[in-house]
Amino acid sequence: MEAQQDKRAVAIVVGGGPAPGINGVISAATIAAIKQGHTVYGIYKGFERIAAGDASCIKELTISDVSRIDAEGGSMLLTSRANPKKSPEMLENVVRLLQEKNVGYLVTIGGDDTAASAKAVADAASGSIAVAHVPKTIDNDLPLPGHVSTFGFQTAREVGTAIVETLMNDAKTTSRWYLVIAMGRKAGHLAMGIGVSASATLSVIPEEFPDKKVPLGVITDIIAGSILKRLVHNRPYGVAVLAEGLAEILDQDSIPELAGAERDPHGNIRFAELDFGRLIRTAVRDRLAEFGMEKLLVIDKNVGYELRCHAPNAFDRAYTKELGYGAIEFLLDGGSEAMIIRRGDDLAALPFAEFIDPKTGRAEIRMVDTNSTSFKIARKYQIRMTEKNLGDPAFTGALSKIVQRTPEAIATAFAAAAKGWGAFPETK
User: Average of pLDDT values for 24-52?
Assistant: First the structure.
């Protein structure tokens, strides 16, 4: 346990995009530290202001400041994607300003980039500031053991599911297709989770594609093939949920806009500015027009900002209280440079060294396991053009009458989407 005379202050900072439950961590950590006699400071606007040398962003927190905020969405400390690793001067500012406030313990709340920033601060402080990281992201892409979700994911999936269910009803009522772009910078956990829970027509995620330079036409044909297959069954409607991380694996030669896409301070594509949904929608509409289906209405819809600051559900409220408390206990017991996680019914500390690459300084990304039973079952319930469809004269004949193309031309057009890109064969 810590020495009784060691009453160094605790600081809390939030980095990256918002996620439901941030305030729960802030509240639990603040109360736990104050109850043990420590002053607590909140660092406002992530690392942005403190890295610039602005001491006014560091404000003392009281129990009355954080009481009952655990049920609220957003972050009372705000957040930013500022990267203090960009220069030695920025890291020096962070360490210096914290030391001026007698801060000996830092709790960081964020995703993979914030975890890497936390380690950089600990290294720059040469052991004078102990750091504990609390994993937060609706992307669910941090390497937590036992497939434990990151906080915020369960709420985001729940809210996203409700949105997609409404779009499914709208699609059926108005005979149209929605292409829903779900957040997930690298991994497809959220897109797949929402798609399965909402019984969407199909979900497409980057993990399906072992080749990391996928032509736009392949993604387009998976979606167009699903749309045309539904037409054979007299269902001119549906919803496809697409992970925004697909933009990261597309061949830039097939989408010139990717080459000049705006990126954040950590080098990640800003998907909102790219308007990935519009690019996919345009490509799908153009492909359908080749088959005489230009009148079929296809609409893109981004789903993400509606999820990030939603009030946390019951799971995430309880989860974040445990993580906030665990971060303080870990630090005051002498721990540092680790991520606080749940392991079964207990809390544990995962050392930075086990998931942050020492060469790149970047945290490991947890991708969807395409060999898992859950993924395979999810794919079984999707509507995709398959090899069996293309080899079935009755199916290709029926589709031929709709699109006015020969069965042979149809089979050739969708061969890659049906076979070469992971579509599971249908049960005979």
Answer: 98
